[in-house]
Amino acid sequence: MQVIGDHLQQGLDIVFIGFNPSIRSGETGHHYANPNNRFWKILFESGLTPRKYEAAEDARLLEIGYGLTNIVSRPTKAADEITKEEYKQGREELKSKIGFYNPKIACFVGKGVYQEYSGRKNVGWGRQEESVVPGTIDFVAPSSSGLVRMKLADIVAIYSELSELKIKTRGKASGQD
């Protein structure tokens, strides 16, 4: 099982944050590699990427201003296998990463990921009123797992809001609005 490395650099538009890698990702060394995971399809259909990327191209997202990381780095079959200690350590490491890399938006791929990170229980979809790390917008999107019972069109609509938010943050950064 491979450790799935982060794909991060300074000043990204969006960093996508998952729970932890799947077993399939651990086997391949790439984020969102499980064929039942709809992450790559959702990014394309929501307008966040110009084409549908493959998991093996995950590092290429850096070229278009996106990064990838997880709250816990250990691959598991399901998120319920993650221990409280792993979450505690992951939460602190994630805050440090976000503070250091300073992305415009931190997109949490699943409410549960954000709940573990922020300690907040009542979390809605989309932009959060208050960010955990000042200077980075917190955005909560549905999990891309094939186990999620939400309709794909509804998931894509929420990720489309993220695409619009990205455009707005670029305009503000360049002095436009």
From TrEMBL:
GO terms for molecular function: pyrimidine-specific mismatch base pair DNA N-glycosylase activity; uracil DNA N-glycosylase activity. This is DNA glycosylase. InterPro entries: MUG/TDG (IPR015637), Uracil-DNA_glycosylase-like (IPR005122), Uracil-DNA_glycosylase-like_sf (IPR036895). GO terms for biological process: base-excision repair, AP site formation. It comes from Mesobacillus campisalis. Residues 10-152 form the Uracil-DNA glycosylase-like domain. Keywords: DNA damage, DNA repair, Hydrolase. PANTHER family: G/T AND G/U MISMATCH-SPECIFIC DNA GLYCOSYLASE, G_T MISMATCH-SPECIFIC THYMINE DNA GLYCOSYLASE. Pfam families: UDG. The keyword DNA repair applies.
